[in-house]
TrEMBL record:
One of its GO terms (cellular component) is cytosol. This is Ribonucleoside-diphosphate reductase subunit M2. GO terms for molecular function: metal ion binding; ribonucleoside-diphosphate reductase activity, thioredoxin disulfide as acceptor. It comes from the Eukaryota. The lineage of its organism: Eukaryota, Metazoa, Chordata, Craniata, Vertebrata.
């Protein structure tokens, strides 16, 4: 059971930057087919991660807090490095620093969902990064 949990929550972090970049396209009315499929994939991946977090809460022998934190931090570092390479220039409403903050925000939300405390401590997500109607971010 423990090994089934591990791959899913870090994927929420790994997908978050790419999903956010595609939602940025949607906000500008670009590539409607891609942005629609992204909404569906984002929703499904969110459900997978929610289920993994629920499974984690039912584990009898949970991994140590330090192990979970280490996995989350490593996922954040990998995703931030990838997006720094993938997004080398500033765009209107998006740049590397904002994307790094967003990834840390997603990681903190994931940690809370797993029953741990935030480590990056971003209080809020910029309203321009809300990705779906009603202000609920499907990536989270």
């Amino acid at each position: 059971m423990e090994s089934a949990w591990w791959p899913l929550p870090p994927w929420r972090i790994f997908f978050s930057g790419s999903f956010a970049a595609i939602f940025w396209l949607k906000k500008r009315g670009l590539m409607p087919g891609l942005t629609f499929s992204n909404e569906l994939i984002s929703r499904d991946e969110g459900l997978h991660c929610d289920f993994a977090c629920l499974m984690f809460k039912h584990l009898v022998n949970k991994p140590p807090k330090e192990t979970v934190i280490s996995i989350i931090k490593n996922a954040v570092e990998i995703e931030q490095e990838f997006l720094t390479d993938a997004l080398p220039v500033k765009l209107i409403g998006m740049n590397c620093d904002m994307m790094k903050q967003y990834i840390e925000f997603v990681a903190d939300r994931l940690l809370l969902e797993l029953g741990f405390s935030k480590i990056y401590r971003w209080r809020t997500l910029l309203t321009s990064w809300r990705t779906s109607p009603g202000g609920k971010d499907q990536l989270l």
